[in-house]
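Handoff note, outgoing to incoming analyst
You'll be picking up this chain. Sequence as last confirmed:
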Amino acid sequence: MKVLVTGAAGFVGSHVVDALLDAGDDVVALDLLLESAHDGPPPYLDTRASWRFDDLRDADAVADAVVGVDAISHQAGMVGLGVDFADVLTYVEHNDLATAVLLRALHDRGFAGPVVLASSMVVYGEGRYRCAADGVVAPGPRDPRDLAAGRYDPPCPSCGGPLTPEAVPEDAPLDPRNVYAATKVHQEQLCASYAREHGARFAALRYHNVYGPRMPRDTPYAGVASIFRSALAAGEAPRVFEDGMQTRNFVHVTDVAQANLRALASDASGAFNIASATPHTVGEMAEALADAFGSGAPRPSVVGGARLGDVRHVFASPERARRELGFEATVGFVKGMHTFASAPLRAPAATGRTTR
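Most recent structure output, in case you need it:
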């Protein structure tokens, strides 16, 4: 099978390229090498792939790249919460517009092969919650006054009572809470629309908190695992926002790459949570990384505060991916964090923004 991988030089994309090549597939690897994310081609690029350093927003370049391919692994895009709303244009260009250009090129070809999209758990907003009195409820954005007062858990929107977080399934309502999340929802919708019109198979892989080698470091757009790892490498205590009890799924990038291969080979369509089976708190993750650095490492510091647009608890049920894709995460939390403590990370580019 000949697969076009977009965002192929990025954190997740490069691991997808490696996994496809190791499985015997031919790979057309496309990446812009955005100057704000890369200072030229990173050293880990696999030379077995056919590399194209082109802009996914360039219709001519994309039309050329899709010639002869049998499947699409669409990993390209801006990731992370961002710095502020001034990032909106960049996110929309590199996520929504670039996806539209890719789909238009596939339309012009009459492409009906599988399309796999790197989506994200951020499409859920706050995850799934249950109130003892009102059942499953959807709390709205957290009140800044509550956050300032250290009240981090959202209350029941009906009775104001306490809520219990639950694993979120793929059929949960979508509720994007920031610009990045809104672009991921739109990417899913664009790809789903294409698939319906062309009879193509489409899988949206909703990645939960991905970590591992080649993760970008020292950038405000990086994931929390990378930020904590950078602090520990500098001999500083990881600064844990809120009370550290925010719940997430942490999934190793090699597992995410295998999920992509499963999705490309499967007959299944739709959205799939790509996550580990066991959630952990952000505080537990910081502690596990500090443990991996050894007894002399500084311990995490819980500093309170909260970022507007962030959510409290979102963790997944991975059951659908197991049942329909045959995917299960294999890298355990403690082992994964231990290896991540010494894994090579991608050096930051000049402006510190990052692509997947």
